[in-house]
Amino acid sequence: MQPSIFNPWAWRDPSALAGGHTQATPSVTPPDGPDGGHDGPDAPGPGTPVDLVGYQVQASDGRIGSIDEASNEADAGYLVVDTGPWIFGQKVLLPAGTVAQVDHQERVVHVDRSRQEIKDAPPFDPDALDPEYRDRVGRYYADRYLPPPGVMPRVI
Question: What is the pTM of this model?
Fold first, then answer.
C-alpha cells in the first residue's frame, strides 16, 4: 500500500478557522432591521479566531450532530461531535482533515465523509485520547485519501 501524505489532524484550510472570507465584504448584505441593525449571527471577518463549538456538522449525505469540543492545535486538530439521537447520543471524533468547508453564516461545518463512514469509525472514548487511539482514528480517516496505484500522492 502506498503511504498517504494526507495528515488527518491538520486543517486543510486553516483560514476556515479565522473567518475564511476571500473578501472583506460579504456578497450578500443582511437586511437592516427596524433598529438599523440586522438579525442573525455575523460571520467573523478575516483573521478573527472562531470557536466552532455549537456549530452543526453536515456529512456528505446528511446532518450528524453538533460540535461539543474543537481543537485547532497545529497537526492535532479535531472535532468532538455530539450525535444526539442519530447514534443513541454517542459522540464521534472527527480529525480536522475531514472538514471540507465551514459556513460561518449558517454555523455549519461540512465534512467529506458519509454518515455511515462516520458511524463505522473507531468509537470515541474521551479517556483514550492517547497516541495509539489517535493513530487508529487517523489511519481510518486517512485511508480514503490514498491515491490509486501508480499515481503520485499529492500533498493536502
Answer: 0.73
